[in-house]
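tool=predict chain=A
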Amino acid sequence: MIRQAQYSRFGPADEVLEIIQAAKPAPGDGEVLVRLHASGINPSDVKKRAGWGNTVPPVHPVVPHADGAGIVEAVGKGVDPNWLGRRVWIFNAQGSAGYGLRDGPEVGTAADWAALPTGCIAALPETASFETGACLGVPAITAHYAVFSDGPVDGMTLLVQGGAGAVGELAIQFAVAAGARVLTTVSSFDKAAIARRAGAEQTFNRHDSDMATAIRSAAPDGIDRIVEVDFGANAALNAKILKVGGHIAAYSSPSNRHPAMPYYELQMRAAQIRLISNVLIPRPAIEAAITGINDALSQNRLRPTISAIHPLEQIAVAHERVESGKGIGKTVLTIAAGD
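tool=predict ok
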């Protein structure tokens, strides 16, 4: 038997999350069995558990968390046996079931063991810890796609909105390593320090009453590309600072699910807008991200900030921490696998 976190209905973390004893899974065709060592918690994980957004009510108990890291200990039919014994990081473990895009249970990483398709794993370089591996899936793939989905960035000026967030921090690191000049917005002195450590040349306080003037002063020709954490909140600002023909890659809009767009202002910048869903990133882009992520990890150029580490038994506490916004960086569960 193994330990497994799950919830069968939406609601507060301390009311719906439970740790149960479950049968140890076996890998099916095209799957690997991973002994989990760490499980990463993303804002999307806590939102799904709370029933936010496009989630649909659970038909099966949900094992939370899309991201994690561990060691492959068995392989199913049709799987390359070279995966056996390899350290891996895990992404999109739950597939798209939680968004109503397919049927079936959501098998996440908050458990001692998980049987997962090979399309959800990538080799974890020896230089990276399991805790770091658990921080990669959603944030790193999203960041890589947001930075590079419209081509190389060498010589460009990028603005990363929310440069101390999980996606923003890694987006800065990717862009700087690729030769871009990166500016970023933050909401506190501590967050500015995180963004500067990631490589941002200049930070701007998002509470500044005239941030557009400050950013245009730093980038008088305008911003080539914007990596956007809150499309609704920042659309008007982006229309003022974007270079003509510039790109906005937006991966969230938490402040307003149905934002009003300043259409003509953006039209007059000939703005190119890309809306990113982390469960719908094209597979070729995911493969490119895996290569980029692992190259950066191997060269110590990708360093996600971890703010808290909890054992599996404290999953509800960890969810509450993510929801509260306490700390700067990722919250991770450590898992010591059972028998």
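Confidence is low (pLDDT under 50) at residues 96-102. The chain has eleven helices and 15 strands.
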